[in-house]
Structure formats: structure tokens, C-alpha cells
């Protein structure tokens, strides 16, 4: 089959979908990637993908740019004529599906997360909900990364129940993210890995840190991730620099390989407002690290309170500080058990091979139906 994979960045494809692409190639499928060109596009080409560049602004809604994206994707699809198109992230899911529908090309969509569309009640959200409702009627299959997202779409009649299904995120490569030998840092270390936008709970993390420091806790606090100042909810670089200058948090910048930093921390923190299935938490659990995350969709699929970490209240820096203090004062045996439980959970439910097999089954169903 000629399969097109459409995402908002080449970086995303290379970092999160390459094992899936390799599995497809091993079955003889021809893979076309469609995404904006970035530093990772050459890696996709080197891996045997045929790349098609597209302009895409994933940061917000702009009617002119979004209509241009619909037209551009339609022209690419018309020229390429793939047997099936796999869409990921919001704009490819909506505009890619509409473009494919006009050409009667089958699509499989993946709702990786809802962003802020369903967190706010405004005109932009209403338009987005309407576009989902129109476009998803044409999708042959829609994968959701947690049951709450799926139920939300079903309750709003945005997707047909027969075409919807659940996936455990993008899965995790258990052979790549492996536990290191347990060693507790002399100064217990918390690490948050995320894009630096407000929706990830960055401000709550910083506020919790300040509260813990005021009480004299001798913990170490780290932050890793790229600033996204063009994003509506991006955190200003001046603010980030003020945290660094004040010694509030150790900023680690960005990296192509998070494993040494995960292995070097004692606990991974993600106080996000809502997720699909957060990759950071899958990587942490697979690496046998205890986790603190908000009790929201996506996060509480990965973290079981008191089993492989703690769940904290949404947008509540006080509760986050309490959970961090409790985690930092646990004995080594409990921390090791949390880590081991997380690793087992990944092996049973989040193995990347399970996700890949779900896609293979969906592709096989399409092939039989054609």
C-alpha cells in the first residue's frame, strides 16, 4: 500500500513514529511523510520516506492560513493518491480529513490530545468543535488515546461510535527506555520535561518549588523543554530567565535524547491541564521512575496513585507541593517499588508493539473493505 503519514512537524514523526514506519516498510508498504520541513526532515528521507513539505501553523486558528492548509493538503493528496492517509494532531485531523474526503481517500485519524479546544468555552472552541463534527464523519477510523476523550467526542456526536477506538498513546519502545540501576541522588531531584507553555502546568510547578523552598526542603528542581514564545500560552523567555537567575529551577534546555536526564532524576513531574497520553510519562514509567502528575485525562491513565506515583489536583500548586514533599521523603524501597510498578504497567498496556498492531489491524480492515 501507498501510505501517507501527516503531522504538524517532521520532528514529531521522527521522534514518535519511526518504529511504526519501519514496521510498515518491513511489510512492503511505501511511506510518504507530509509535514513542514525542519531539522528532522533529512532523517525521514534517510529512513526511506518520501517527504512532501507543507506549510502548517499549529499554534492557533487563522481562517486564511487554515483554508490555505486545506487547499495545500488537497493538492498533495490529489497528486500523490495514497491508498490511505494517517493523520495525527488537530489540524491534520480536521483539514487533512476534509481534503481526503473530497478525493474519496480513506483516512485513519489519531486524536493525540485536545489541546485547549475543550478547556475553554469561546468562539474559537465552538468553531473547532463544528469542524471536528463535519470532518470526522468522513474518517474510516478514529483512534483516541484515552477513554475520556473518546467519550467526550461521542457525547457531542463528533464521531461515529463504530469508527472510534482506543489506543494507548503512541506507545513506548521498551527496549529504548529501560531502567537504570537504582541510585538515589544525595539531593532528591525532580524533573519536568515539556514544551514551556502554561497548559503543561509550568507555573504550578514553579509555585510549588517556591513553597517547598520556603519550608526549607533540600530538593533539586529541574526543567527541560523548548520555549514556544509564538504560542498564545507560551511562557516568555524573560520569565524563564528570571527563574534561572533566582535559582528557583535548573533549566536544562532541550535535547535529542532525554534518557540520561530521566535516569538522572528521582521523580518526573507533569502537572498538565489535560493530555492525550503524555509521552514524557510513558518514557518515565518505562525507565522505572516514580511520577507525579495531575489527576486529569491522559495522565491518570499512566499514573496510578500510590502504585507508580502520585496524582495531584488540577491547577493546585499547594497540592502539588504536598505530593512532591511526600515523594521526596519516601524511603528507597517504596521509590524502587513505584518504579518497578510503572515499568510493569508499560509492559502490559503501553508497549509500542500493541499500538502498531492496532494500526495493522485497521489497515487490514480497510484493505478488505476496498
By oligomeric state, this entry counts as single chain
Poorly predicted runs are none
Taken together, the total number of domains comes to 2
Give average pLDDT, whole number.
Answer: 93
Main beta sheet strand tally, sense and closure: 7 strands, parallel
Radius of gyration: 21 Å
Q: Report the CATH C-level class of the largest domain.
A: Alpha Beta
H/E element string? EHHEHEHEHEHEHEEHEHEHEHEHEHHH
What is the number of beta strands? 13
**How many helices does DSSP assign?**
15
- For the terminal residues, how far apart are their CA atoms? 12 Å
**Backbone structural class:** alpha/beta
Per the CATH scheme, the topology name of the largest domain is Rossmann fold
Approximate shape: globular
Q: What is the percent of helical residues?
A: 40-55%
**Order of strands in the sheet with the most strands?**
3-2-1-4-5-6-7
Instruction: Write the CATH architecture name of the largest domain.
Output: 3-Layer(aba) Sandwich
CATH-level-4 superfamily name of the largest domain: Glycogen Phosphorylase B
What is the percentage of strand-forming residues?
A: 15-25%
Short account of what is shown:
The chain has 15 helices and 13 strands.
Give a description of the structure:
The chain is α/β, with parallel strands linked by helices and 370 residues long. It folds into two domains: 2-171 and 351-369, Rossmann fold; 189-350, Glycogen Phosphorylase B (Rossmann fold). Helix content is 45%, strand content 15%. It has 15 helices and 13 strands. The strands form two sheets. A seven-stranded parallel sheet has the order 3-2-1-4-5-6-7, with helices on both faces. It has a six-stranded parallel sheet with strand order 10-9-8-11-12-13, sandwiched between helices. Helix 8 (202-214) packs across helix 13. The model has no long low-confidence stretch (mean pLDDT 93).
Amino acid at each position: 500500500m501507498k501510505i501517507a503519514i501527516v503531522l504538524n512537524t517532521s520532528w514529531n514523526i521522527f521522534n514518535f513514529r519511526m518504529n511504526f514506519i519501519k514496521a510498515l516498510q518491513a511489510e512492503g508498504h511505501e511511506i510518504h511523510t507530509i509535514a513542514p520541513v525542519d531539522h528532522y526532515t533529512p532523517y525521514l528521507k534517510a529512513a526511506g520516506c518520501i517527504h512532501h513539505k507543507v506549510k502548517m501553523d499549529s499554534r492557533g486558528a487563522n481562517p486564511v492560513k487554515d483554508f490555505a492548509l486545506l487547499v495545500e493538503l488537497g493538492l498533495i493528496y490529489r497528486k500523490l493518491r495514497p491508498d490511505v492517509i494517517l493523520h495525527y494532531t488537530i489540524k491534520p485531523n480536521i483539514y487533512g480529513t476534509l481534503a481526503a474526503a473530497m478525493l474519496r481517500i480513506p483516512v485513519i485519524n489519531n486524536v493525540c490530545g485536545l489541546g485547549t479546544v475543550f478547556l475553554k468555552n469561546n468562539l474559537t472552541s465552538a468553531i473547532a468543535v463544528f469542524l471536528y463534527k463535519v470532518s470526522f464523519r468522513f474518517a474510516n477510523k478514529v483512534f483516541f488515546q484515552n477513554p475520556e476523550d473518546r467519550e467526550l467526542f461521542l457525547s457531542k456526536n463528533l464521531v461515529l461510535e463504530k469508527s472510534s477506538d482506543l489506543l494507548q498513546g503512541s506507545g513506548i519502545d521498551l527496549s529504548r527506555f529501560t531502567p537504570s540501576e537504582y541510585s538515589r541522588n544525595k539531593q532528591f531531584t525532580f524533573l519536568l520535561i515539556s514544551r514551556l507553555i502554561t497548559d503543561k502546568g509550568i507555573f504550578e510547578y514553579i509555585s510549588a518549588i517556591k513553597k517547598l523552598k520556603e519550608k526549607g526542603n533540600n530538593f533539586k528542581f529541574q526543567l527541560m523543554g523548548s520555549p514556544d514564545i509564538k504560542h498564545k500560552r507560551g511562557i516568555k523567555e524573560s520569565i524563564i530567565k528570571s527563574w534561572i537567575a533566582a535559582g528557583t529551577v535548573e533549566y536544562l534546555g532541550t535535547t535529542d535524547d532525554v534518557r540520561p536526564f530521566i535516569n538522572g532524576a528521582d521523580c518526573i513531574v507533569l502537572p498538565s491541564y489535560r493530555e492525550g497520553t503524555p509521552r514524557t510519562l510513558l518514557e518515565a514509567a518505562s525507565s522505572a521512575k516514580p511520577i507525579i502528575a495531575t489527576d486529569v485525562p491522559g495522565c491518570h491513565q499512566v499514573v496510578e496513585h500510590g502504585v507508580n506515583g502520585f496524582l495531584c489536583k488540577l491547577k493546585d500548586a499547594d497540592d502539588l507541593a504536598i505530593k512532591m514533599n511526600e515523594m521526596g521523603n519516601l524511603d528507597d524501597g517504596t521509590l524502587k517499588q513505584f518504579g518497578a510498578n510503572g515499568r510493569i504497567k508499560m509492559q502490559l498496556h503501553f508497549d509500542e508493539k500493541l499500538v502498531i498492531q492496532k494500526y495493522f489491524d485497521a489497515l487490514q480492515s480497510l484493505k478488505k473493505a476496498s
